[in-house]
Amino acid sequence: MPPTSTATARTNEALAPIAADRRVFRWHDHASLWFSLGVGLLVMQVGAYLMPALGTQEALWAIVAGSILGAGLLGWVARLGCDSGLASAGLMHAVYGRTFAGLPILLNIVQLAGWGTFELVVMRDATVAIGQQTGALGGSMAGAHWPVLATLAWGGVVMLLISGSMVQLVRKLIARVALPLVVLSLLWLSWQFLSLAQAQGFEALWNRKGEGGMGVLPALDLVIAMPISWLPLVADYARHGRSGGAALRGTWLGYALANMWCYALGVLVALTLPSKDLVQALLLAQGGLIALSLILIDEVDNAYGDTYSGAVSAHSLLPRWSVRRWGLAMTALCTALALVLPMHSLEPFLLLLSSVFVPLFGVILGRLAFGADAPALLTSARPIHATPVVLWLLGIAMYHLAPQVVPGLGSALPTLVVSFLLAWVTRPRQA
Fold first, then answer.
1. What is the pTM of this model?
2. Rounded to whole angstroms, how far apart are CA atoms 57 and 202?
């Protein structure tokens, strides 16, 4: 239900504009948060997936273009969240209607649970690799139980963080501690693998041609899929910002730099050590153990981001539970799933998410961009807004049909552009 009364506004934090005294994020807070969220072993692994299908220069072109475009979308939605003071759930209510919005919100909760589980699995596998490298696993019996213990330990860390203040986590822990350490780690790893590339013949690696199997535009889709996976989260944090322009610039810059860096590092690792698992390859670098450990610690904020935003979305549907209580439940769920689910192929998962959230936010941007009053639209929202719903469903269909109709063009960008334009053209004109 939209906040049609003071009581509702108090009880459903996700569907009420955030108070002015809680808007404390400046542009560097947005930048540090989204740089930190953009850094991750998962991003490096997806970057490594681009090789050897693409040539080196083709891969880097897709990484730069996809990161700029994808992070730009994040920044745009961040501005909407900051200007309106609404969480992502509130934006969905304003555009799709207060009843129908429950469907994309539920899908968002499902995908956040999936991402949180993936993050814990990645953290677990990296921890096991570090333990094996250092000999900390001990005998075979200890080694057999180590993955379970590592999963429970990282789940416990995320649960501890989710029980505290999100604002304080961003402004103090991430900005002052995690960010400098992870930047130093990335610089060190980049230097190590660039040195290895130089020893192997940098010019030959730079001019290496792809073996085929993936075009540049499909690769662009895969790169864009990573920032797009964060679209349903960004407003949950940007609403705490003081200025919409600062939220846009900070989010765009922070995430674009991190995404380009980690994708490119994954490509570099795949070029220099093509037969090695990425985590094992990082451990082989001089000082790689320390650098990987610091990146692993930073990975915690990715899992935190998934569980916190999942909690905000769940709170919007069932406000009787606080955001903190939902966060603890989400973390427990992700931890349990990480104990039983295997690590599947990432590419289909990422592209499936894109097929839902690219047109979803294309329509949201088309309806709310350029000065629309989102809080007013939320207050007056009907149970269902038919036109945006139809456009969203048509966008999903277009995303899946595009590769068959126009092969080689990609899916994300055409779907985003068409969804945005149709939503903008058909939106009600304010008097």
1. 0.89
2. 12
